[in-house]
């Protein structure tokens, strides 16, 4: 069977190369490149993407062999129904192999049409590599390569302030744009690129913080044969993503004039401050993931869809989000409600198996970052404890006992955390420590929570009460009890 190319796909428009993209992986193609394709079809954006690889070159070769084309399957809930649809994305013009084709990279820096730079080199990609040099072809790090590209552009246009770029990193770190700019300036200083170049970086270029959200499982190994038969061609770059997407870009509003994402029907925004959106995502989506995991897993469930579709855990998750997490957020109620409904629909996605054990990795640090702030804010606003969140914390302590019935739970966390819980639960089993002591000592361990949680009025007693119920009656009975208590109140 023939591989996907322009002959198979049919006539594809040729767009000016407006975007340099660092990264050729599944997420960028299923998220950014798909949105650029939508922009081209729904607005006057009229631009294509040139891709360079942050690491290896295997996908760059495959991308060029397929004329920049790839198939995207979007699977999930859409307008209340389960939808599985596919399309060929046509927004990539070519890929550049940085080792073999570095001169093309330098030539692109002098392109009059290039305007945007987008990246996703993983959270570990934005760092300062002291061994990088301007003369390297290419530099080892992504920020080093970006600095070299910008310097070549600065030289090509003699420092023209109208020839800077809008830079939008998609790496999942806070203030990713600000951090990237900081490292570019560090390279400029380290490489002695001059005050004029530094001034050009500040005056001509806009570094945007951004927040991205779409689950992209990637290449569908288990179902590729079935998909290939359906499509009638081979696609080595086929990628699967969920229907939901959100892209929040923090930057000046004039960017919309050149990058009209507000006119394409996309769930994408250019905002003055993305902080509320980040907190909303972390607390509602990520926080409920973390909170549901020990409760659902110890109830005998294995996936997020199992958890949200189960009568008991599904009710627990919904009420946790709407009654305990949302009241702590400073955003319009209708926006929060719409986001929360989207989250629950995503959890129900029948096409994806999101295993609770994969979410459970480093659960204590996740609870600290995602759920402790919710707990504290709720107490401050309501002058009482959020009982479902407290129940989740109790379930987490039980989860770290490392047993689901007779089944051993393969816990993954910081060695200090694992050693602490192993020793504590062993002491309880040996009757040299009571559950009350385990709770008090664990909540007081600042290395885990960043504070002494015993200082939260009533928390120690309630966690102890719930943990005893879980240990004595089992998770399902304990959950039923706490949900009845809350429904009465």
Describe the 3D structure:
The structure is a single chain. The protein has 489 residues and is of the alpha/beta class. It has helices at residues 6-9, 26-42, 58-65, 102-109, 142-156, 176-190, 195-204, 224-231, 255-258, 275-297, 304-309, 311-325, 333-347, 356-359, 363-370, 372-382, 387-399, 415-429, 435-443, 446-449, 459-473, 475-488; strands spanning 17-22, 48-52, 70-78, 81-89, 92-96, 116-119, 166-169, 206-207, 209-213, 239-242, 246-250, 268-271, 403-404, 407-408. The strands form four sheets. A six-stranded parallel beta sheet has the order 5-2-1-6-7-8. Strands 4-3-10 form a three-stranded mixed beta sheet, covered by helices on one side. Strands 9-11-12 form a three-stranded mixed beta sheet. Helix 17 packs antiparallel against helix 22 (475-488). It is globular and about 75 Å long.
Helical stretch tally: 22
Q: In angstroms, what separates the terminal alpha carbons?
A: 64 Å
Major β-sheet profile: 6 strands, parallel
Shape: globular
Strand arrangement, major sheet: 5-2-1-6-7-8
**Beta-strand fraction estimate:** 5-15%
Considering the chains and any ligands shown, give keywords for the structure.
489 residues, alpha/beta, six-stranded parallel sheet, three-stranded mixed sheet, 14 strands, 13% strand
Task: List the topology elements.
Blueprint: H1 6-9, E1 17-22, H2 26-42, E2 48-52, H3 58-65, E3 70-78, E4 81-89, E5 92-96, H4 102-109, E6 116-119, H5 142-156, E7 166-169, H6 176-190, H7 195-204, E8 206-207, E9 209-213, H8 224-231, E10 239-242, E11 246-250, H9 255-258, E12 268-271, H10 275-297, H11 304-309, H12 311-325, H13 333-347, H14 356-359, H15 363-370, H16 372-382, H17 387-399, E13 403-404, E14 407-408, H18 415-429, H19 435-443, H20 446-449, H21 459-473, H22 475-488
Parallel strand pairs: 1-2, 1-6, 2-5, 3-10, 6-7, 7-8, 11-12
Antiparallel strand pairs: 3-4, 9-11, 13-14
Helix pairs in contact: 4-5, 5-6, 10-12, 10-15, 10-17, 12-22, 17-21, 17-22, 19-21, 21-22
